[in-house]
Structures are given as structure tokens and as C-alpha cells.
Design goal:
With 321 residues, the chain is of the alpha/beta class. It has two domains: 141 residues, Rossmann fold; 160 residues, 2-Layer Sandwich (Dihydrodipicolinate Reductase, domain 2), CATH 3.30.360. The protein contains eight helices and 13 strands. The strands form two sheets. It has a seven-stranded mixed β-sheet with strand order 8-9-7-10-13-12-11. Strands 2-1-3-4-6-5 form a six-stranded parallel β-sheet, with helices on one face. InterPro entries: AGPR, AGPR_AS, AGPR_dimerisation_dom, AGPR_type-1, NAD(P)-bd_dom_sf, Semialdehyde_DH_NAD-bd. GO terms for molecular function: N-acetyl-gamma-glutamyl-phosphate reductase activity. Pathway: Amino-acid biosynthesis; L-arginine biosynthesis; N(2)-acetyl-L-ornithine from L-glutamate: step 3/4.
Amino acid sequence: MIKAGIIGGSGYTAGELMRLIQNHPKATVDFIYSTTNAGKPVTDIHQDLLGDTDLIFTDTINPDVNIVFLCLGHGQSKDFLEKHSFASHTRIIDLGNDFRLKQDADSFVYGLPELNRKEIKAAKYIANPGCFATAIQLALLPLAQNSQLTDTIHINATTGSTGAGVKPSATSHHSWRNNNMSHYKAFEHQHLGEIRQSLMQLQSDFNHEILLIPNRGDFTRGIFATLYMKTDIPLATITEQYQTYYQDHPFVVATTENIHLKQVVQTNKCIISLEKKGDYFLITAVIDNLIKGASGQAIQNMNLMFGLDEKTGLQLKSGNF
């Protein structure tokens, strides 16, 4: 049994990890670390787990666990690892952004399975991708592999309120977010660096602009991203390339059908829709920002690191209502 520790236990991604590991046949949560909630039952914060766990938040770590998930605020993981040591066999998955870029990576492998599966299997430390970055990269990787990113990429992507984290802010309170919509960090979102890095891994001469407009949506979870660019490649050719690229990746589906967000919420799936309108190629990608965009992808990476089928514990179902 894989013994897991969760650091930063009161947030949304930690709650999702708890739920996923609770139902994982090969893993168990050994401890869940939270300095602000130490001594309290985990169910005081993650109330949906009432009756499923009797774990208590702790402010001490077990350094001998098999794997540690870092669910800390961005910029806090490096500091935590400088102050705490784990056994030589302990593997680490960071769900923050501290190690995603190569110049910051140290020994961390970028954990997008559809790009780096082989490297993830051999890795000790993983930098889990960002949620916007996951959806956008999956939408573009087959084009990059075939050196077909030859124009500016225009992206409009909307995320649910859980993407802002559990701590309330002026733009995440329900009274502000309900029946409302806005954009933020237009053209300068922090995930752009890792997106460009991955595209250049497959297409080294890629040097075009990536124009991303992130939006705050009036829903709690999910990302709906639309991307478009000019291309003269026929849709049938592109569709075959996408289906070939993802044929061995169980959580990604490419289709020419129209898609919607409820097809992926509460799952580890990414569904990609492909359309051609004249000279423009339109891609739509949908994921659950907390699962495929965060904790589910972390479990997928854990499975690969420990030699398990990457689908283990992630056969989750969505609903259409």
C-alpha cells in the first residue's frame, strides 16, 4: 500500500486528493498537514468526507511516507522543502508552480503524462501542471508534434470559482461571482510560461504569440477553453493526427462533435473538439480544473511513478445534469 502525506490540507486540491485516495485500491492517506487546523478533524473542513475518515489535521510530518503531495500556495513549496526533510525513498508531487519551469525545476520532472509519461515513470519529483496549462497544452500538443503551430494562437478560457482557491477574495465571493463574468491577467497569465515550454519541447522553432484571455466563470468547477489559429491543413488530416497522438492516453478524447463542460466535471478526462471554419482551425478543450487540472492528474502521475495502471482509482463518471 502506498502511504501518502498531504501538505497544505485545508484547500480544494487537498480535499480532492483525500477523496481520490480514499477510493484508491493501492494508496492510503498517512497524514494531512495543516498548521492552521492542527488538532481538528479533517471532516471539519472537508465535510463531504464525514463517515469516510477519522483523520486529524497535524502540524508534524511523517518523513518516511512513500509519497508527499504539496498543496501549498504558489511560491511556498520550495520554502517548505528547505525546512522539512523526507526519506530518500519518498517521492514528491508539487501541485504549485514552484518547479514547473526548467530554470526552477531542480530535479523535478514536468508532470503532463500526455507529454512526459516515460520521464514521469522514472521520476522521484514531479511538478504538476497548472489547470489552464493542462487544458491548453492538451489542445495543442498534436499540432506541435507535427510542427504545425505556424501562426498566432488565440485563446479564450473560462474557469470555475474553485480555480481561485479556498480563501475568499473580492472576485471569488458568491455574491460577486453569481450571475457575473469577468476576465483577468489578459495576455500575461502565469501558466503561459509552462505552455510555451511544452510546445517548444515538441516544436523547437515555435516562436509565435500565445494570446490568452482567462475568464472567471459563474460556476464552481471546470475549464472551457476555445483556441483558434489559421491553417490550410484539412480537418480530416488534423483529426487523424489528434486521434493518433492520444490513442494510448486513456483520459484524452478527440472528436469533431460539439462538446460541453458537464461531460468532464468530476472526471479526469479531457475532451477536445476540432472544427475548421474557412482558413481558421478551432479547438475546444474541457477539463475539471480540480481533477485533470490538479489532483486527478497528481494521482495519475503517482500511478505512473509506482508502476500502476495510470487509470487506477480514476474511473470517475460525469453527469449531464
